[in-house]
């Protein structure tokens, strides 16, 4: 198949949509398909990338909207650039967004008669604080737009139940197929966290909790840090590594005790060893859909301690690969201590690795191939 993927965020930006999109492109190419990715231009990437077509973008636009620093806003291509893109022979178009990227996918589909697949990745209302408009106004604009876009595409996918529920709440009544994000299991299952611990002076036998992700208001970092301190009152040797960067870093640093280390961002190649270094992954965020970092933690054999949310309930089997608790410091502290209990931890680590098998890139790429083939067959009827 000749596949076109239209995304508003891509490498080297660090977020779940960019990572999962790149992994799916890799997995589909490994299965012999031709994949063209249409994504925003980024100054850190070379001018020529095999199979990637960079569209004009604006960091100034991102800053004006209050978006995270590494999220360039994609700009609509003009007729000349569009004429140079390999659009007319595509068999299927897949977009990760219902805004400009989605509109481009719908427009380009008319050139080839290809079906459009849409993955609803984001609980958009959780990010309205990045826009200058009042939340009430943002919701009034957002909900009908997303529902109308979903009605225009041929297939709608959702990584988790949170997105199915969101689309229903927005007024979309069509089919929404659950379709989890992938992880490259090989890199995580072979990872060794010894050197990563040593880099941050974590003793080999010290219990280590980790948060890995963006440092942003919607991640509830204050609750997580308070939970850690409550747990440390019972386990004085407990340590926490906060891996990532974002607008809330200064706030998190101000709340962090000497048992907490904020590492800043790490290259993606080091993420497997970072997660393998930890004994537990902790998050107080309730804004996640099916977060890549939590799937990757499972693949590394690191059990999860997560605030209650549809995403956490999708990923966590209670007492098998982690625990789901209320989004309070007391509840998360109790969950962290339970997961780290020496008699429980080895079983939870094994359960984490086993539960990650369903997210293996090869399995998910084959499943996505099936989604595309069915969409093409329906379009040709």
UniProtKB/TrEMBL annotation:
UniProt-listed InterPro entries? Glyco_trans_1 (IPR001296), Glyco_trans_4-like_N (IPR028098), Glycosyltransferase_grp1 (IPR050194)
Could you say which residues form the signal peptide?
A: none
One GO molecular function term of this record is: glycosyltransferase activity
Q: Which organism is it from?
A: Deinococcus puniceus
* Gene3D superfamilies documented for this protein: Glycogen Phosphorylase B
| Domain (Glycosyltransferase subfamily 4-like N-terminal): residue spans on this chain | 15-186
| Phylogenetic placement of the source organism | Bacteria, Thermotogati, Deinococcota, Deinococci, Deinococcales
Write the protein's name.
Lipopolysaccharide biosynthesis protein
Any stretches that span the bilayer, and where are they?
none
> Ranges for the Glycosyl transferase family domain?
195-340
């Amino acid at each position: 198949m000749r596949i076109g993927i239209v995304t508003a965020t891509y490498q080297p930006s660090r977020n779940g949509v960019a990572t999962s999109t790149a992994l799916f492109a890799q997995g589909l190419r490994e299965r012999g398909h031709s994949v063209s990715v249409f994504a925003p231009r980024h100054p850190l990437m070379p001018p020529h990338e095999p199979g990637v077509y960079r569209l004009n973008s604006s960091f100034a636009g991102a800053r004006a909207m209050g978006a995270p620093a590494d999220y360039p806003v994609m700009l609509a291509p003009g007729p000349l650039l569009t004429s140079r893109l390999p659009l007319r022979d595509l068999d299927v178009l897949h977009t990760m967004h219902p805004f400009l990227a989605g509109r481009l996918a719908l427009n380009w589909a008319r050139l080839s008669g290809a079906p459009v697949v849409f993955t609803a990745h984001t609980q958009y209302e959780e990010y309205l604080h990045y826009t200058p408009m009042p939340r009430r106004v943002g919701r009034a604009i957002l909900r009908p737009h997303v529902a109308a876009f979903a009605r225009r595409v041929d297939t709608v996918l959702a990584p988790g139940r949170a997105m199915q529920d969101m689309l229903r709440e927005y007024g979309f009544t069509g089919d929404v197929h659950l379709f989890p994000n992938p992880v490259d299991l090989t890199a995580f299952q072979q990872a060794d966290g010894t050197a990563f611990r040593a880099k941050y002076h974590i003793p080999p036998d010290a219990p280590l909790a980790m948060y890995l992700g963006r440092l942003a208001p919607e991640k509830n970092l204050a609750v997580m840090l308070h939970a850690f301190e409550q747990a440390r009152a019972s386990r004085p040797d407990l340590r926490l590594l906060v891996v990532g960067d974002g607008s809330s870093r200064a706030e998190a640093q101000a709340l962090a005790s000497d048992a907490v280390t904020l590492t800043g961002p790490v290259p993606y190649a080091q993420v497997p060893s970072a997660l393998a270094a930890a004994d537990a992954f902790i998050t107080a965020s309730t804004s996640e859909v099916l977060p890549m970092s939590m799937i990757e933690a499972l693949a590394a054999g690191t059990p999860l301690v997560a605030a209650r949310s549809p995403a956490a309930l999708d990923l966590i089997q209670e007492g098998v690969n982690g625990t789901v608790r209320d989004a309070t410091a007391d509840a998360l502290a109790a969950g962290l201590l339970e997961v780290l209990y020496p008699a429980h931890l080895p079983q939870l680590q094994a359960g984490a690795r086993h539960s990650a098998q369903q997210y293996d890139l090869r399995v998910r790429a084959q499943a996505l191939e099936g989604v595309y083939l069915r969409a093409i067959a329906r379009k040709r009827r």
